[in-house]
């Protein structure tokens, strides 16, 4: 992915466009790619609460367009340099959705193709999940500074206007310093994200190169 976009808006603007939950932000991020209603999502995004408002990051292969809901002076896009993913060490900040898959069975007791995802709520399970995802994603987490895990937050959302049956994702923020051990796997993880619920703003790797050697 080549383009990193940032939008910072105040609470008043977010309220005007009804950006109240992760599903609303999901739809808002799509508006940065107009004219492609049937396209499969090929971008990542992340929303953070900041002082007096919200910050949206979008990571995409094609350059996103400023959505109508974002004032012109609140929108910025930069193209990532070709060597951005060629460093050995990075500071990282990842908001992920750690889950485990629970098998489901049909009326005959046969396991179905799609199981249920259950959020990991125990700290040890969250750490093990992240370390496993790190290995799959081509990096290891350094011990110094130690891995920081922000307490889990519930992200409820309304889909299809059914307010009596809201959806829920559990988000956990992981921060620390990583070392790349498998370049190709790392680049793939950067492009594809880590974990589930990526369409709802989870799994995007926000990274900053470091020179430690």
The CATH architecture term of the largest domain is: 2-Layer Sandwich
Order of helix and strand elements from N to C terminus: EHHEEEEEEHEEEEHE
CATH topology of the largest domain: Alpha-Beta Plaits
Rg for CA atoms:
18 Å
**Which CATH class of the largest domain applies here?**
Alpha Beta
Structure description:
It is built from four helices and twelve strands. By secondary structure, the protein is α+β, with helices and mostly antiparallel strands. Strands 5, 8, 9, 10, 11 and 12 form a six-stranded antiparallel beta sheet that branches. A hairpin with a 2-residue loop joins strand 2 and strand 3. The mean pLDDT is 89.
Give a brief rundown of this model.
By secondary structure, the protein is of the alpha+beta class. It has helices at 11-16, 22-30, 123-136, 183-192, and strands at residues 3-10, 43-50, 53-60, 75-79, 89-96, 99-102, 116-119, 139-141, 148-149, 153-157, 167-180, 205-210. Strands 5, 8, 9, 10, 11 and 12 form a 6-stranded antiparallel beta sheet that branches. It has a 4-stranded antiparallel beta sheet with strand order 2-3-1-4.
């Amino acid at each position: 992915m080549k383009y990193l976009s940032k939008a910072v808006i105040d609470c008043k603007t977010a309220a005007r466009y009804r950006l109240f939950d992760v599903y609303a932000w999901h739809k808002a991020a799509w508006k940065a790619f107009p004219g492609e209603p049937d396209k499969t999502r090929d971008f990542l995004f992340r929303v953070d609460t900041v002082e007096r408002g919200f910050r949206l990051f979008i990571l995409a292969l094609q350059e996103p367009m400023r959505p109508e809901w974002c004032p012109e002076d609140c929108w910025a896009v930069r193209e990532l340099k070709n060597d951005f993913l060629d460093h050995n060490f990075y500071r990282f900040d990842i908001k992920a959705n750690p889950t485990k898959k629970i098998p489901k069975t049909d009326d005959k007791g046969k396991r179905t193709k799609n199981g249920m995802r259950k959020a990991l709520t125990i700290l040890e399970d969250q750490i093990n999940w992240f370390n496993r995802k790190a290995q799959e994603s081509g990096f290891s987490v350094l011990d110094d500074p130690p891995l920081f895990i922000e307490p889990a937050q519930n992200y409820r959302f309304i889909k299809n206007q059914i307010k009596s049956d809201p959806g829920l994702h559990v988000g956990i923020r992981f921060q620390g310093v990583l070392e790349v051990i498998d370049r190709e796997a790392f680049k793939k993880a950067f492009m594809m994200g880590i974990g589930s619920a990526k369409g709802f703003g989870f799994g995007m790797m926000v990274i900053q190169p470091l020179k430690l050697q």
